[in-house]
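Narrative of accomplishments. A recurring question from our advisory board has been how the design workflow behaves on a single, concrete structure rather than in aggregate. To address it, we present the structure tokens for one chain from the evaluation set, followed by the sequence designed for it. No filtering or post-editing was applied between the two.
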């Protein structure tokens, strides 16, 4: 016989099911039986409520979530989560009602999901038992509840994961995509020249390859259109006067091999000779750049000199103004500090006087046991402070207690006392009626006596 659930758990389960689920009694019974077997024992499952978002409709709802781990070995366990849908256990028109089971691996323990026939890549669990549940468990077939419930579902899941464990300790290796065919290594370093030749398809393509360092493809176009297309080493040189580019560009224009497309044997001997002139040419063009920098430095020096002169003239005035401001602020702060010191001194003197007066009153009260001194000149007799307990007061207190006890007993019988169950049933209905009648008679006389004492005798309102 399974043990009863703790009262807190059963109350929590009842309060959760009432506003959410359609078949409240069935859901409560099935979940209660499930927790009797597996709550912190056997398979060590727990219960909670979480928001579930449907992958099909995208709707979110608050559902009961049963979660736990099924131990397979000392190293591997299978974390299982069971979601109880709103329409549980019957399948509604939308196809909802069958419990949803997920395998949720714990990556912190190096557990990874291995898809199988019963578990997909998202961790959702499939089984013929759940398919039969979807087809057979309907409102027209209430006898199917003996076969389709949470306890039987967990048994099916346990058998499935024990036979074919969906958890592995090593992450599955994903097959790599076949690499693209490798290109020829000899042409790998010459991939950029074809890109530079694309906008210059109007010129001869073959002569453009040899002078890749000198940017010879620019020679196929007029001189005025060559400035936007130089190599990075030549971009700074295009900003110089036109005399410099004319001398440099004249050397590549001399060879006639660019116009003679058939003269292909000339490309190999031309690779090295044209490389030396362009290397030396940038060095000659960088020299004028050094001449432009000094004027900028001279401008900076002039500005710096003006700033120094202005600072030397303005520094005495600014220092004097700052000193005056500091003096004014210091005077104000000094006044504030003096005020605070005076205030604290006054408070300290008052506290000292009060402590002295309290010490004197304590000594007087210790010596005189019939009076209480409240200051240096006034004292009150103890008889005036203490009121004796009258017999009527005690009687009124006891009557009030009896009235409260009778009312609580009547509420307990009718089920209105601290959410306790109603004691009245068919077997003891007559006894309860007789008891309530007697208590009502006693309550009437007690209330009458209470009013007589409090209002007429003691003059209480």
């Amino acid at each position: 016989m399974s043990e009863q659930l703790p009262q807190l758990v059963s109350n929590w389960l009842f309060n959760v099911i009432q506003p959410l689920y359609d078949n409240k009694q069935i859901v409560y019974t099935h979940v209660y039986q499930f927790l009797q077997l597996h709550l912190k024992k056997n398979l060590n499952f727990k219960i909670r409520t979480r928001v579930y978002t449907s992958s099909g409709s995208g709707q979110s709802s608050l559902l009961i979530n049963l979660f736990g781990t099924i131990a397979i070995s000392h190293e591997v366990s299978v974390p299982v989560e069971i979601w109880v849908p709103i329409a549980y256990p019957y399948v509604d028109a939308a196809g909802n009602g069958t419990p949803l089971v997920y395998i949720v691996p714990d990556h912190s323990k190096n557990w990874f999901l291995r898809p199988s026939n019963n578990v997909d890549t998202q961790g959702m669990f499939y089984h013929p038992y759940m398919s039969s549940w979807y087809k057979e468990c309907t409102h027209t077939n209430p006898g199917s509840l003996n076969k389709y419930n949470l306890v039987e579902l967990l048994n099916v899941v346990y058998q499935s994961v024990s036979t074919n464990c969906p958890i592995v300790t090593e992450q599955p290796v994903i097959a790599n995509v076949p690499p693209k065919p490798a290109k020829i290594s000899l042409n790998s370093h010459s991939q950029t020249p074809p890109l530079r030749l694309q906008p210059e398809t109007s010129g001869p393509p073959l002569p453009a390859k040899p002078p890749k360092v000198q940017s010879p493809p620019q020679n196929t176009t007029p001189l005025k259109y060559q400035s936007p297309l130089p190599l990075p080493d030549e971009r700074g040189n295009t900003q110089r006067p036109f005399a410099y580019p004319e001398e440099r560009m004249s050397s590549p224009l001399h060879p006639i091999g660019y116009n003679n497309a058939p003269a292909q044997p000339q490309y190999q001997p031309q690779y090295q000779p044209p490389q030396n002139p362009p290397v030396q040419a940038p060095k000659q063009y960088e020299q004028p750049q050094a001449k432009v920098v000094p004027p900028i430095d001279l401008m900076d020096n002039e500005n710096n000199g003006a700033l120094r002169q202005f600072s030397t003239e303005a520094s005495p005035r600014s220092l004097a103004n700052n000193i005056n401001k500091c003096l004014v602020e210091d005077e104000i702060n000094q006044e504030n500090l003096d005020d605070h010191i005076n205030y604290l001194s006054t408070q300290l003197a008052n506290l000292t006087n009060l402590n002295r007066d309290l010490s004197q009153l304590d000594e007087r009260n210790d010596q005189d046991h019939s009076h209480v001194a409240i200051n240096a000149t006034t004292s009150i007799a103890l008889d005036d402070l203490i009121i004796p307990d009258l017999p009527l007061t005690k009687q009124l207190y006891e009557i009030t207690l009896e009235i409260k006890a009778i009312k609580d007993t009547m509420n307990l019988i009718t089920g209105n006392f601290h959410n306790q169950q109603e004691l009245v049933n068919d077997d003891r209905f007559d006894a309860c009626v007789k008891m309530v009648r007697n208590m009502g008679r006693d309550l009437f006389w007690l209330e009458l006596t209470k009013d007589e004492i409090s209002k007429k005798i003691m003059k209480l309102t």
